[in-house]
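Anyone opening a protein record will find just a pair of labelled lines. With that in mind, the following record should read easily:
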Amino acid sequence: MIKNWLKIAFINYRNNWLSTIINILGLSVGLCVFLLIYIHWQDEKSYEQHNANKDNIFLVENKNGDFGTMVVSSFPELSVSKEKFSEIEDYTIANIWGGYKVRLMTADKSAFVTSCRASDSVFDFFPFEKIAGSFKNAISDKSKIAISEETAKTLFGDEYKNCVGKTVSLDGPNTEPMVVTAVYKNPDANSVFKAGFIMRNQGLEGNGNANTQWTNYSYVGYFKLKQGTDVKDLEKKLSALMAEQEKIAAEGWGEKYDATKKAEVSLTPISKMKLDAKSEGVSKGDKKSIMILLSLSALILLLSGINLINLKTAQASQRAKEVGVRKVVGSTRSKLILQFLLETFIICFVAYIIAFAMVELLLPGYNKFLNKEIKLNDHNLFVYTGLLLIVFSLISGLIPALYLSNFKPINTLKGNFARSKSGVWLRNSILTLQLIISSFFIICSLIIHLQVSYMTSKDLGFKGDQVIHIQFKKTDWQNDFNSKKYIRLKNEVSKIAGVEDITGSVNTIGWGMSNTSSVKNALDTTKSIPNVIVGAIEYNYFKFYKMRFASGRDIDVRFASDTINGTIANESFIKKMGWNKDQAIGKEVFPGWEEKKKYKIIGVVKDFYINGVDKPVEPMLFFNYDRNWAKNNMANLQIKLSKDDINGTLERIKEFWLTKAEPGYPYEYQFIDKQFAKTFEKFQKQQTLFTILNIVVLVIALLGLFALSSLLIEQKLKDVAIKKTLGADERTIVWDLTKRFLLICVIAVAISFPFGYYAMNEWLKDFAYRIDMPVWPYALSMISLLILTFVVVSFKAYRATKINLVKYLKYE
């Protein structure tokens, strides 16, 4: 029986070779797109899954009315909460920033690696494999350090397992040697807890009363909770505790506590924090984008299934008599359904194999696009996708199987089933759904393109072309070391041929990190602005970036008052203070970074973007860096290059940097304009992916439309022959065969409009500066789909007008 079913299946594949190829191609592409996005999602979900205590360890996050949700906590919040609440078994601190590396040295070797500044209990929370030494008291004080196997190999070579007891030190003055107490292996599995070395967090040593301040948010903390803990209830207790402490702190500063901005504490299990952290998290992934793409890829898979269903039901007339005959000779409906399901499964299985081959070919480029190293080595992926294949085959095969098996022998054996109206409604409905999805993708793709183009072409308020940024690797926060180094390097680099100008600042354009503080109106201290960016800058900063002033003037070194307490405000700052550009000049403010010292506004600079154009311009206050604590934060050079010999200038700067500025450190630089472009890189990637998905959708839809129209027009060839015999011209015949498809297209596109509007309106809400919802993408989707539908269908319709009349009328 199975052998007979297979013979019938392959005969039908051969007779309908075009629709078979289109089905396999469409399903392969649909499955490939879905698999690529699915494995990205699974890779993001796999972080920390190797940790046996993953469901009991929680990241502690704090929501503050002024600063939003933060990944950092205060030391008292972690330590006191453990003592106060019995649900908390223990806590640990693990400050690890993957993008920040430091130099660790022995007498003759060095390693440039990521650090983790932690508390001693970190090894009880995270499953590092011990290679040598002991984790007990491994970082109990600042004289001890644990290093990774990779770091140990770099520093000690083949003797790395015997390095316990030897000393290493961080590069820089006033650094004490540290004894290696343990060598550990970083987890092979996906984890954010991978570091070149782990040492005691410096904030836990000699930090005065800072560690008694409940609002000193400086530590990335984790709680280990007891089994059965009611997490939501504990969050409420922690939030109440933090709100109480914030109120006490506000009263101590002589400020009125705002109960509407009271603290909220969130606990996110580390098994989910990669995607579900409330704050920016620790190396947090972009869950929203992944889920959007996953949903869209599922739509593409659905579109492929629709093609399969539509083509199978369209072939019904060719198999109606076969079904009728088999029923007459005793075949049951259940056997017919199984036979048709088998035929569908064979097509799906072939497409599944081809899809995996395509994934394997595309994966290197996909990894490069995502900046990841995803591999097809998870057996669960094959299990899950195998189950998906079976479910997909059942769903996509069951509708045509039920439809075909339901034919009545008396009807199918009497005459030409092709002229019956049975099944027309089903094919039209499925074709409509297919075109709705296609129109939805066209609308979304065009609007995303418009928004991203709007961002990339927006006036940024500064000119960053031919400017490179070099961050100091070797820094020290004592004795004004950074400012002295900045001045020395600035003087040296300015002598290099091809360097036109140099400036510096604490906050760099496009880097996404900012020092912020609250600022009060000196005349009315109840008027306060939170999250004001602290703009410590070099004197030539505004001239360097060709920024324009709305009123007032720049800082002038000839006036002592300018360098002592003069400040420049941006337009966003004065608007929040309730001033216009002229009223702001001469006004005095109390900045939070200098206690009881008034700053006088001498100029208002026009708004410019520093952290990306998808967010509003933050309020900023600028002052010369050499007046306060900012000296030790000047850790970069921003260098303007002559356009005549950019490559030569870069080589000369590189040689100076590697031989004189920071020998032993890697040389890294970024162009300011390219670095700023990274702030909307996520949205450019969304644009690219959506464009690719749009092309895939259109190809699948048009292939399906071509195959469907071919089958349906072939069923009407006798009608065409009769019309030609009666004198109908080719234009009339083509229009008669095409107009039904065009009507379905108009209805489908009209239905897609509200879905496209809702989806894009939700997507645009993420942008502080967004386009108004345009009308023309909706009109263009209608026009483009009508044209494509007409071209695809009319091509086959025109071919139908060239038939041999004798062939179709000789038996009439």
Q: What stands out?
A: Confidence is low (pLDDT under 50) at residues 415-420. The first strand starts at residue 57 and ends at 64. Residues 1-47+284-422 form one domain.
